Amino acid sequence: MTIPLPLFVAIPLGMAFGLPIFGAFGQKGKRAATVLGNVTTLVLLWMAVTSIGKFGVYQVGRWSIPLGINLVLDGLSSFLLLTIAVVSAAAMLFSVRYMEQYTAKPKYLCLFLLMVTGMNGVVLSGDIFNLFVFLAGASIASYALVGFGCEHEELEASFKYMVLGSVASMFVLFGVALVYGNTGSLNMAYVSKAIAASGINPGLGFALALFIAGFGLKAALVPFHAWLPDAHPSAPAPISAMLSGVLIKSLGVYALARVTFNVFGIFATSDIAVQMGWILVILGLLSMVAGAFLAIGQWDLKRLLAYSSISQSGYVVLGLGLGGLMIARGGSLTAASLAIVAGLFHLGNHAIYKSLLFLTSGSVEMATGTRQMREMGGLASRLPFTRATATVASASIAGVPPFSGFWSKLLLVIAAVQAQFIWVAAIIVGVSVCTLIMYLKVQRYVFLGELPKQMADVKESKGSMLAAMVILACLCVLMGLLVIIPGLKTTILDPAAKALTDGSEYASNIINSSLVVKQ
Amino acid sequence: MLYALCFLLFMIGLYCVLVKKNMVKIVIGVMVMEYAVNLFLIMLGFRFGGVAPVLERPDIDGETGQVLAGFLSASVDPLPQALVLTAIVISLGSLALMISICIRTYEKYGTFDITEIRRLRG
User: Do A129 and B44 touch (CB under 8 A)?
Assistant: First the structure.
């Protein structure tokens, strides 16, 4: 059974505007809205699972594709859809209890689902203008969610995020306009064909630079990262989990990869392929190193996690960049696809364990009322489940075997060695050690040591919060199976990497499929 | 030349965002950038002496049923106009949100000066 692709956008969009109506019916309405919100994310999860391994093109309103809007599902899209669905289902489950401390819960659910709509739209969109529209939609919802608490810090962070995010959106729109002016098309497949025929002229080169800056700002890669450490900690914990876990990946890393690998088809054909590969590798390395060093010095728990997100998304971009560089140099395609698989696998892993870490930080903050690590200590005895899940996530992110982070970093190191970048492999291992240090710091100051007197009777979180954390912790352990069991790797990870390594095949697949529809 | 002026407008907006201290002026800078991009999109489809891209009976050759070359070379490109409409709606949404955040921030801090709104550090 094939799921019609527009439902991935239509269901959360419809529910987003349906749920606030329940707010008018008092407590009962609020409870109903919460249940419906959870049902929505679970339905999306089921839809994402069934769409794995499929390829589909949907033409909106039956307009044939160079003219109309189209949605495309390929290996990369379905991998991202699955990641978004898993994290949003867990974050939604966590919010059931956590968001009781805020007023206006139905509005929160509305913004949450709008953000999911935007992210699903970005990963499914088959033309670059709609990519921009969905990107702007998801961004506006996330600006509002960052400022959801309406206190001093939240408003300040939200404003900062909003200004930089809007500038990023404008860069992307300017790039879209330049691409349209130079190729006469907005459909990714046709743009890709036109660029393959004409090569990259100065106008398209400028558009590419604007895309790198725009999506780099959204992905918070290091020269563009200033907003992230303010914005992510200020949001409510489940939203921090969504922002760090999937928003920066689907809006930033995915869009960057899609545009460079598929739309511009840089690594397959053009003469700036090697330079582009180096740009991605250097952006990745800078983010990894700078993010890790800045994170170690933090004393605010959520701020430390936010800096570590910068460092971890650097790994993903590094993997993609190494893969692109190997294709550009005409190296073996298996080695290139190993690097890209490693990057994408790390993307999935990071989504799971970073959202888990933000959820545990929310649980700690709810119990103790502070985020400052200096004021905490000895919480292991009071919050045993939070401590256990946080330890699993920390072990994963630091790359301790057999947890998930170990496998993706191992693949990345192997790929770097195969590409004969021994120094890159050394940096990967070095940053891993830094990551281990920062999470040992979290363990030491939050969960071990002496319990302060005023925290002697803090309570462990219960119910839905606990369930969400335990589910994600189990996933952290099980994610390793994705590379160990060959069947899972060939159905989930390999098609996603193949969509990127065979850059120009994306265009011909879509154009061929539209011919089939016409007959 | 016109494109260069359009790019200059974009850079003026970016300068305003980066340099100004007043929150409202920063918002104005973002809006200037958006208008510059919208203007650029409109100019992509613009033609001097162009006609509306709507086919009427005189524009079609009666014998062959083909669209006349005169219409094809004179009609403006309608697609950028549709894009600009969408982009304007999006920028309206984000403008409303930005202004409301500015108002809430002013209520909390009592100032629009971003050098004084600095509780987040590190």
Answer: no
Task: Report if residue A181 sits inside a domain.
Answer: no
Average pLDDT over residues A114-125: 95
DSSP state of A57: E
Evaluate whether A153 touches A470 at the Cβ level (below 8 Å).
Answer: no
Residues B57-69: tens digit of each pLDDT: 777 777 777 777 7
Query: What whole-number distance in Å separates Cα of residue B78 and Cα of residue B85?
Result: 11
Helix (H) or strand (E) holding A71: strand A70-73
Q: Please, which residues bridge with residue A71 across strands?
A: A58, A125
Instruction: Tell me the CB-side half-sphere exposure of residue B88, using CA atoms within 13 A.
Output: 11
What is the token pair recorded at B107?
């209520």
Kindly tell me if the per-residue pLDDT of A287 is higher than 50: yes
CATH of B2-109, one of 1.10.287, 1.20.140, 3.30.70, 2.60.40: 1.10.287
Whether residue A270 is predicted with pLDDT greater than 80 in this model: the reply is: no
B60 touching A (Cβ < 8 Å): no
pLDDT for the residue A11:
95
Rounded-to-integer distance, Cα A262 and Cα A507, Å: 8
- Decide: A480 and A397 in contact? Cβ < 8 Å: no
Name the residue in chain B with its Cα closest to that of A169.
B34
**Least CB-CB distance to A229: which of B14, B93, B122?**
B122
d(CA A133, CA B82): 13
User: Residue A231's closest chain B neighbor by CA?
Assistant: B120
Distance separating alpha carbons of residues A57 and A64, to the nearest angstrom: 11
| ipTM summary value | 0.93
Domain contains A9: no
Q: Report the run of H or E that residue A56 belongs to, with start and end.
A: strand A56-59
Residue A401: other Cβ atoms inside 10 A: 10
- A346: tokens are 């790390």
The pTM (predicted TM-score) of the whole model is 0.93
**Alpha-carbon distance B38 to A476, whole Å?**
45
Cβ A129–B83 below 8 Å, yes or no?
yes
- Determine, yes or no, domain membership for A461: yes
Could you tell me if A127 and A135 are in contact, meaning their C-beta atoms sit under 8 angstroms apart? Answer: no
